[in-house]
Amino acid sequence: MSLLSVSDALKRILASFQILEKTTIFLDKSVGRVLAEDILAGTDLPLFDNSSMDGFALCAADVTQAGSATPISLPVVDDIPAGKMPTHHLQVGEAARIMTGAPLPPGADAVVPVEETDFNNRAPGAALPESVQIFKAANLGANIRKRGTDIQHGESILHAGQRLRAQDLGMLAMLGVADVPVCRKPRVALLSSGDELTPIGQPLTEGKIYDVNSYTLGALLEAAGCEIIPLGVAADTPEAIKAALYSAKDADLILSSAGVSMGSFDFIKDVIEKEGKLNFWRINMRPGKPLTFGHYQNIPFIGLAGNPVSAFVGFMVFVRPVVEKMLGSSQQAQIVVRARLTEPIQSDGRESYLRAYLYHENGQRYAKLTGHQGSGNLFSMVQANALLIIPPEVKSLPTGAEVTAWLLE
Ligand code: AMP
Ligand code: MG
Description:
By secondary structure, this protein is α/β, with parallel strands linked by helices. The protein has helices at about 5-15, 165-175, 215-225, 240-245, 265-275, 310-325, 380, and strands at about 20-25, 40, 50, 55-60, 70-80, 95-100, 110-115, 130-135, 145, 155-160, 180-185, 185-195, 195-200, 210, 225-235, 255, 275-280, 285, 290-295, 300-305, 335-340, 345, 350-360, 365-370, 385-390, 395, 400-405.
């Protein structure tokens, strides 16, 4: 059987998925979610002219001659804390005490900070002085944040497809956006299969091992923004697999691991083929050569290889892009960097994903393999902070060669 390239397999898989329905969620739940619509500013920012300092609002022309030896005294006619509108139109020759963020009174064209006056009392409740001495001239517009200087009404601020970060949430709050448009979370039914697998928390009996993939794949799905429908561990019988898949009815994707090497695979194959279709692919990659893809009752099904590293890499290569597509993400699924090898590398000509540790030295990024690259050796994945991607056809690379790497955040 000829091997399918990674990119062809991914293309075929992606064709079965669409962007999910839009909904809105409250702003405080939106970090990490993918925005489903462009956000245009519904207002200018700042919303109004305001002071960037605690000080005195005045007319700059009144204090052009001010100096420490030649202070200029002005009557204080208003007190404007943040959150309160000025009550007075400032006249030439007048000053108003003003706090950071408070609206500038009409008539004022500069703010002199308290440090440059004889009134340096910022204690809460400090009484308003009758007059203030100004020790320094102020430029026109000094310490004033003018309406609309950061953002103008109608300006495009955030874009559909971007994943929201803390600063984006702050921006949405500034704009008063309480309900954030996103696509709903993909529901992914997650299945581990194998007679040898024991759920964590139960004692191991002879010949058994703990189920690893439910936890790694579950964590990867959650980090990617999915809702998980846990199907648990199914034994290698048609009945067990049938029973597990029954709970997957509302899923957008069924993700299973193992049972794709011949033998036990037949059970999954039989069960799915009775109510859908399943392809068994051999991918030109390492690890993770066996991959199943198909549909179970119209729900897309991806079956990753069972070894813990194969399942992990298979997720990164095939599942993460699927999730990004369902979420409407316009961002690349992986952060791609380049790094120099600190040792020669052998490959077998398949597209290879090698566990490596990236570090910086003298302004250069280097990549060091983290040890044994067997597909069951999760420890070298634990020690890795990146996957090196050795392209197909490449059989060896010398020390110093530059390679592409995906960061494992
Ligand atoms: P299989 O494809 O079922 O032959 O599985 C390949 C290898 O991966 C076997 O050594 C399994 O024991 C191992 N394996 C499969 N699923 C898991 C899992 N969920 N956790 C840990 N190891 C697994
Ligand atoms: Mg098995």
